[in-house]
Amino acid sequence: MKILLNNDDLNEALNTVSNLGFVPTMGSLHKGHISLIKKSKKKSKKTLVSIFINPKQFNNKKDFQKYPRNKKKDLQILKKLNVDFVYLPSKKSIYHLKRKKKIKLNKKDKILCAKFRKGHFEGVIDVMDRLTNIIKPNNIFMGEKDFQQLFLVKNFIEKKYKSKIISCKTIRKNNKLALSSRNLLLKKDELIRAEKLTHNLISFKKKLNKIKDITKLLNIKKNELNKLYNIDIEYLELRNMINLKKTNKIKYSKLFIAYYLNKVRLIDNF
Ligand code: AMP
Q: Which residues are within 8 A (CB) of 73 and not within 5 positions of it... i.e. 6 or more apart?
């Protein structure tokens, strides 16, 4: 496993590599990340995993500061998986060049997390643009856990580069809670509440069929869940999974949630 610390290391190492799979991460690796890496290893000749906690995508400084960091353990996991390259860039090596054109979301995309985390996806797209430009991977592996991120990055990257975005299923614990690096920030009772909420939403989604007034129903459900699990739901919305428009049809729909448990913000979709 080659550890690459800057763009010179990267260019030298990737010079002769073809069919490269790329897994971008912010570290604190878990089985969700591992599933992406395994998929890349299956589909690609070589796999590169990046670990970069991108300051630009944090709309809240405190959130950036308290984001979990576990570099030593991450490197052990990656070594065990026999990953070919690990890219650990500094902020400077990613952002040393100024953008020519500022990244702006379309009005129709300012929904779900984009509505509540101002500048977040602009930061995600910026870093993905820069990483794709230097790494030039054939395929980029991303998780459906962050569905809106996958949707926006795919639209941007596949228009500009030859790289393809490969979407990967959400990995959950046995009790169905989606794996997330942010789970490390939860206390035991908070984890249990997150697990119960997940169960509740999975069975709620199964029971939904033809609904007349979905907005009203989701509002009632939101209030019920807030009280039941002592959480603060930012949004609970049913949207079409192809275009992310609001829908009241179950076919091709996903139920999206973002919520605060104490001060930790979690997202999921079902
Ligand atoms: P992060 O390190 O949180 O930025 O995530 C890096 C990549 O892993 C993103 O493409 C995420 O969507 C993906 N990912 C995170 N959690 C999961 C999960 N539970 N299942 C599948 N993919 C995930």
A: 29
Separation of alpha carbons 22 and 161, rounded Å: 14
pLDDT confidence tier of residue 241, bands split at 50, 70 and 90: very high
Instruction: Please provide the average confidence, as pLDDT, over all residues in the chain.
Output: 96
pLDDT, tens digit (0-9, with 9 covering 90-100), for 194-216 = 999 999 999 999 988 767 788 89
Q: Is the CB of 194 under 6 A from ligand 1?
A: no
Instruction: Count the Cβ atoms, other than its own, within 10 Å of residue 257.
Output: 23
Which residue lies with its CA nearest to atom 10 of ligand 1?
Answer: 142
CA 222 to chain centre: 23
In contact, 40 and 77? CB cutoff 8 Å: no
Q: Is the CB of 168 under 6 A from ligand 1?
A: yes
pLDDT in tens, 20-52: 999 999 999 999 999 999 999 999 999 999 999
Predicted structure pTM score: 0.97
Pocket flag, ligand 1, residue 170 (CB < 6 Å): yes
Establish whether 33 is a catalytic residue: yes
- 5 near 92, Cβ under 8 Å? no
In the reported structure, the alpha carbon of residue 183 is separated from the centroid of ligand 1 by a whole-number distance in angstroms of 12
Domains with residue ranges and CATH for the chain? 2-168 (3.40.50.620), 181-269 (3.30.1300.10)
